[in-house]
Amino acid sequence: MTKLPRVFAFIDTETTGLSPFRDRVIEIGIIRVENGEITGELNSVVRPNMFVPPEIFALTGISDNEIQIAPEFSEISSRVRELLDGAVFTAHNARFDYAFLKHEFTRMGDPYQSRVLCTVRLARLLFPKASHYSLSHLIDYFGIKPSARHRAYADAEVLHEIYKIALRHHGEAKVNEVIDLILKSSSLPSKLTSSQVENLPDSPGIYMFFGEGSSLPLYVGKSINIKERVKSHFAGDHRVAVDLALSSQIARIESVSTAGEIGALIREADAIKALLPIYNKQLRRRRDLWVAVRGKKRKYSSVELITAESTKLAPDNILAVFKSKKMATETLHSLCRECHLCPKLLGIEKGSGACFMSQIGICPGACTGNADPKAYNAHFEEAFDKTKVQEWPYAGAIAITEQNFDGMIEVHVVDRWVYMGSVAYKYDDMTEIKKEKYTPRFDWDIYKILAKRVLNPKKIRVLTRAQVEEFLN
Predict the structure, then answer these.
(1) Residue from 249, 260, 250 nearest 206 by CA
(2) How many other C-beta atoms are found inside a 10 Å radius of the C-beta of residue 441?
(3) CA–CA separation, 387 vs 320, rounded Å?
(4) Dihedral of CA 298/301/302/303: which sign?
(5) Model-level pTM greater than 0.85?
(6) 82-91, 363-372, 387-396, range with the lowest pLDDT
(7) What is d(CA 278, CA 191) in angstroms, rounded to the nearest whole number?
């Protein structure tokens, strides 16, 4: 067993909010313990030089007057450093307090790092019969009588008391053994066990983070190595805001292996749209996409704006995709002026007769049938040349093959940018592992995934209609 340092710094902070990137520390309590003896203490309100929400004053009992006369963090930083130096940073949901103090030091240009001991994890491992592990529940469970609640020094005293209770119940050798185990995996969220992460596959695929008792994921991610990517979330959870927020909530991880990157990317996009995880904001927003679809009015090319979820979508007719309807109309107005197109044919002006742009010489008169259709349509194609869906480069449907190091082969079937599904096999005897059929539809996110790879002919073969049916039936 690793010989442990016999120095602990029991720490609690009160803050202006939940983000160490935007918010600041307003109170800090530290109790430094060496070989079982208290050798240093700090109990200080801190002036954050920013707005403190009224609910924070109400929760902590700290007054605005205390804040105004308190020292700034820079004024007490040397004392904080002195108490933390060489000690194991020990706190409840420790990543929260650790992140805040790291950022306070970083703002001063004074980087800080330490080994971190989370007392939530310590209590879970040593007292498995406790029903909950919040500080309030542990106070009741152990019958601790704190000098105050939601004050930094008083909560640090509670942590020190929990440590002493653990020593009395289990003995120094057992407590040290458990602390050693936690320190070896100190970057894991408090509600996860190391086995939950170590049992994840090293293969490509997707992973899903779940909160306690929840059937819907908090976050869906993808990687070419699921286990290593999951570990990276927690190794840097004091630097990335999403990872910090996730680490306090994750209680369970699920994963789905794929044979390669294409399978992982497609399943990630599909899962996010279906399950709407709260921390996958970017792909969730894409449900609101608007699409410019090609049409025809008389002899002139025209545009219809529809939502990306519409069943009218056909790859050959997609001229452009926009993040919002406002962005779509603004872009179409610009194209109207730059490429001499008709706003009525672009669907951004209503009414009968000539359009406004024709009256000022921008529209060549397509709205009234006076423009040369061939010339107008050429301008139209030029306007959307860079934004339209690329022409399908094959004579029919194709199969894209991927293989991972675990001996899985996955064949993806795509027809005119529409993802049809996949079949996975064992490499050694080509036994079918699983088959996934997708409802044929054009999906913009999947198109972007496929476009870079479909235009690269490696590991692609063109299929006959019979072969497509054989794959997916």
Answers:
(1) 260
(2) 13
(3) 5
(4) positive
(5) no
(6) 387-396
(7) 19
